[in-house]
Design a protein that fits this description.
Helix content is 26%, strand content 29%. By secondary structure, it is an alpha/beta fold. The structure holds flavin-adenine dinucleotide (FAD). The site of flavin-adenine dinucleotide has 42 residues, from helix 2, strand 13, strand 17 and helix 10.
Length: 460
């Protein structure tokens, strides 16, 4: 059995001191959860308002999903754009999708203003498709993206794909036929089951390292208005008409607003004094899925890539509660390991375990052998096919993802009491949506009136 050993946490400063809340305090905004959502929310609230901000985490900075993800920067939802448009209408779906894509600019803003120099790569990433259903699913999404005025994804279909003659005429102009080999080359595989590819802007970063560096910047730049406490679990929030009393165990905080950036598994009791009850049992709103990943190192002789592979048996072509076999996502990036910068890290994820009760997840749970084997079988079949090579998975890690009922992040004010706000629910892909949500929360706190969005909190 291997342990939960993440390449992202490995790169964090081990000598950084953490501070616990040791007194009662009063502030303007308390942000609960110091992953990418909480850290970027702190960044934009401090930047766009003059409010005092306290960021707290029950454990350590970026040690939740942010420290256990695949680190791909990508703007897709694990739910097709066409189905989001069906639920919310095309204009609102387009605005939401565009907002997440524009979060690339917000990431650049954070990076530049904080004066960071950590590696962040940006390139065109690819997905390999193997069935006509997967291809039609993405053609339909592309069709709706075009109608909505969004950039379309590049879809290539092998000219010898058996279903090629049957592609619907309405999708003309949304794909090109190419030699099969061109697709396999893009996907860096010889596995001929992949007969189409989908390409779009992607990137990669260590989002935990990003959090560490941004928090360091905020502590210096906003020393008068920003505090950060770790090992400070929030157990209860009592909402009043104009503020909240926050129970942090031995101490309490009074704040004008509380923003939950807890990925959904808050374990926080919320009492709305004098108002409607709030269903704060987030596992009723958000279910948990454990994602497993393995990573190995090799000489840095190839550029960064991000490729998702949807094998024939994979049913997960979109957000699907009952998803069957996994799809796999592989990233290759430059990685600094034991003081050397000339290695590539190949990280692969895919296998997942759905939890009925997310509170049973333990980040220190061992990494099951059968998952190592599942990932290794995939790698040997698809990417690193030398039968004589024994791959040493230096890193094996797992993390908890919060899925909302409709697969879309929750961003904004609690309808029953706007003192409480949310930027949570990773839904598989959470880095850019968290950053987008951070800016939106900051705008709301700055007093801007924003129109309805796909991220609004439903009444329950
Ligand atoms: C295996 C895996 C692969 C992924 N791959 C990608 C990817 O490639 N690209 C992508 O965009 N996204 C990916 N994600 C999702 C992405 O990592 C998350 O969406 C994102 O990191 C979530 O950030 P967050 O800040 O919302 O949550 P987290 O990082 O989980 O942070 C929440 C924080 O809240 C704290 N907290 C919770 N409850 C309390 C409380 N009561 N009191 C105080 N603190 C509390 C936790 O300790 C935690 O630090 C992946 C996730 C996993 C697990």
């Amino acid at each position: 059995m291997k342990r939960n050993h993440s390449p992202w946490l490995y790169q964090l400063r081990q000598d950084r001191e953490s501070t616990k809340l040791t007194k009662d305090i009063e502030t303007d905004v308390v942000i609960v959860g110091a992953g990418i959502a909480g850290v970027s929310t702190a960044f934009f609230v401090l930047k766009h308002t003059d409010k005092r901000v306290v960021l707290v985490d029950r454990f350590k900075l970026a040690h939740g999903a942010t420290g256990h993800n695949a680190g791909q920067i990508t703007s897709y939802f694990e739910r097709g754009f066409a189905s989001i448009a069906e639920e919310f209408g095309l204009p609102m779906a387009a605005e939401g999708q565009q907002g997440v894509e524009d979060a690339w600019g917000l990431l650049d803003e954070m990076y530049t203003e904080a004066g960071l120099n950590i590696p962040v790569s940006r390139f065109v990433g690819h997905a390999g498709l193997s069935t006509v259903e997967q291809v039609n699913f993405h053609l339909k999404n592309n069709h709706m993206r075009k109608r909505a005025g969004l950039n379309i994804e590049t879809i290539r279909i092998a000219e010898d794909a058996p279903f090629a003659p049957e592609i619907s005429g309405q999708y003309a102009g949304l794909y090109t036929f190419v030699p099969h080999k061109e697709i396999l080359d893009l996907l860096e595989t010889e596995s001929t089951e992949y007969i189409a590819s989908l390409s779009y802007q992607k990137g990669c970063a260590n989002s935990a390292l990003l959090c560490q560096e941004v928090v360091g910047f905020l502590m210096t730049k906003y020393a008068e208005r920003f505090s950060f406490y770790e090992h400070t679990p929030i157990e209860k929030v009592i909402l009043k008409p104009t503020g909240a009393l926050i129970d942090a165990g031995d101490h309490e905080m009074m704040a004008g607003h509380v923003v939950l950036c807890t990925n959904g598994f808050a374990g926080v009791t919320i009492i709305n004094e004098g108002g409607l009850g709030i269903n704060a049992k987030f596992h009723h709103l958000v279910h948990g899925t454990v994602g497993y990943m393995s990573g190995y190192l090799e000489t840095m002789n190839k550029p960064p890539i991000a490729v998702s592979y949807f094998p024939q048996l994979s049913t997960m072509i979109e957000y699907d509660e009952e998803s069957g076999d996994p799809y796999y996502y592989l990233t290759r990036r430059q990685y600094e390991y034991e003081g050397t910068r000339d290695v590539n890290l190949i990280s692969i994820g895919g296998p997942e375990l759905r939890l009925e009760d997310a509170s049973v997840y333990g980040s220190d749970a061992e990494y099951p052998d059968d998952i190592i084997n599942t990932i290794d079988t995939f790698v040997k079949k698809t990417y690193d096919t030398d039968p004589n090579k024994k791959i040493d998975y230096v890193f094996t890690w797992h993390g908890l993802m919060g899925y909302t009922r409709n697969g879309i992040r929750l961003i904004g004010c609690e309808p029953a009491n706007p003192v409480l706000m949310y930027n949570l629910g990773c839904n598989g892909v959470g880095i850019l949506p968290s950053i987008y949500g951070a800016k939106r929360v900051a705008q709301l706190l700055a007093g801007e009136v924003l129109g309805p969005s796909i991220f609004d909190i439903p009444q329950v």
